[in-house]
Amino acid sequence: EAGVAQSPRYKIIEKRQSVAFWCNPISGHATLYWYQQILGQGPKLLIQFQNNGVVDDSQLPKDRFSAERLKGVDSTLKIQPAKLEDSAVYLCASSLDFGVTIYFGEGSWLTVV
Amino acid sequence: AQSVSQHNHHVILSEAASLELGCNYSYGGTVNLFWYVQYPGQHLQLLLKYFSGDPLVKGIKGFEAEFIKSKFSFNLRKPSVQWSDTAEYFCAVREGFQKLVFGTGTRLLVSP
């Protein structure tokens, strides 16, 4: 079974630039998550989708972060404009319909300079 | 709000030593508990999980964890570690279908 696919794996941008990350969840998984993992910390949920609807985006910095899952399958997370503190690994994850077990992708490493 | 505490940020062991990593959580209701592992350069992988039933849970690669409700703990154990167990270990808690809350992680280094 294919896992959660993410791209790009690595990205270096200057502050105030924009960046977008793409995620394709495990086939059949209705729930999709974006997590942010800052070095030395555990992953923190940014946004959770159920199909193409947002379930939880309480910790998403909406002034600069946006995410969409238009067709209920793959998803894009965008940061504009980026700040130095956005340097982190952005993890996409998926689960069956509100499934308890969540499967993670390899992450997209962002460095903002 | 839920929180998860992992007491040891860095652990260094020799091969064949026993391992115990502590995890405590704040929520007193019904929770699902997880340990994830992240090997160098790889993605987070589920090591084991507890939903209900037997509080002693066995996972992959010889790991086990014990849920002690009275202590709000879910400690991870392995009787004899190997060099290949070098990784970062995350405890996580989920209340029903709410968000998964992670601890800060414990970096384990096993020296050969």
Overview of this protein structure:
The complex is a heterodimer of chains A (113) and B (112). In chain A, strands 2, 4, 5, 6, 9, 10 and 11 form a 7-stranded mixed sheet that branches. A 4-stranded antiparallel sheet of chain A has the order 1-3-8-7, with no helix packed on it. Helix content of chain A is 0%, strand content 49%. Chain A has 113 residues and is mainly β. In chain A, strand 7 (65-68) and strand 8 (75-79) form a beta hairpin. Chain A has no helices and 11 strands. Chain A is globular. In chain B, the strands form 3 sheets. In chain B, strands 2, 5, 6, 10, 11 and 12 form a 6-stranded mixed sheet that branches. Chain B has a 4-stranded antiparallel sheet with strand order 3-9-8-7, with no helix packed on it. In chain B, strands 1-4 form a two-stranded antiparallel ribbon. Chain B is an all-beta fold.
Topology, element by element:
The complex is a heterodimer of chains A (113) and B (112).
Chain A (H helix, E strand, L loop, with lengths): L4 E3 L2 E4 L5 E6 L6 E7 L6 E7 L2 E4 L8 E4 L6 E5 L8 E8 L7 E2 L3 E5 L1
Chain B lengths: L3 E2 L4 E5 L4 E3 L2 E2 L6 E7 L6 E6 L5 E3 L5 E5 L4 E6 L8 E8 L6 E2 L3 E6 L1
